[in-house]
Backbone:
């Protein structure tokens, strides 16, 4: 969770810088910040989605799962997220077992996070590439979606803590091992991405010298 929170902090810093550059009228610097936002969002979103997916997959092997509350639409800002939360709250009332409620909340949160990540990444990339038809409005969209991203992170934290309270030591170790393996796979992808970026930068520098 510390790693996930650090990734979110990096995303927040990049977004804050972009918003400041936009407010100052420095649109070129704002586009550069948007490019960083898109890159960080892709990597952090993959890590957060992977953690949720791992929790869902591993919990299917656990006998006892925690009681959970439904997602609250009032804690989200985008209409798409609010709609998903509404249906989660509605079905929560008719799903009588803690197990069913747990899986429905986890899968709904994955859906919300997937939409949040897609909207943020796509919007930031359009700003960065200079193809946005309404860059000022798109920056407002990033700020709004960024808040929903934070809510998804907090909900993931709560779900993980709830899950840990119900597991035996052996089950905790199984979950820890799979989360660690998932984290390493995402880090390997990030390392490959950084290597590609460095290679591209070297090629650009070589062309400049020519």
Residues:
């Amino acid at each position: 969770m510390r790693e996930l929170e650090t990734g979110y902090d990096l995303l927040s810093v990049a977004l804050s810088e972009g918003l400041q550059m936009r407010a100052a009228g420095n649109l070129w610097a704002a586009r550069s910040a948007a490019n960083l936002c898109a890159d960080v969002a892709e990597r952090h979103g993959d890590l957060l989605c992977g953690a949720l997916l791992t929790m869902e997959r591993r919990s299917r092997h656990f006998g006892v799962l925690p009681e959970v509350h439904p997602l609250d639409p009032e804690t989200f800002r985008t209409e798409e997220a609010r709609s998903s939360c509404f249906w989660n709250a509605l079905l929560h009332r008719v799903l009588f077992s803690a197990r069913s409620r747990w899986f429905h909340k986890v899968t709904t949160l994955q859906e919300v996070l997937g939409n949040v990540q897609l909207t943020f990444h796509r919007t930031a990339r359009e700003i960065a590439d200079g193809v946005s038809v309404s860059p000022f409005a798109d920056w407002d969209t990033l700020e709004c979606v960024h808040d929903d991203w934070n809510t998804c992170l907090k909900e993931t934290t709560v779900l993980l803590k709830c899950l840990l309270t119900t597991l035996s030591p052996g089950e905790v170790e199984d979950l820890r091992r799979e989360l660690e393996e998932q984290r390493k796979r995402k880090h390997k992808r990030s390392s490959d991405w950084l290597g590609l970026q460095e290679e591209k930068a070297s090629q650009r520098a070589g062309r400049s010298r020519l």
Observations:
- The helical segments are 2-23, 27-59, 79-92, 98-128, 135-166, 169-209.
- The first helix runs from residue 2 to 23.
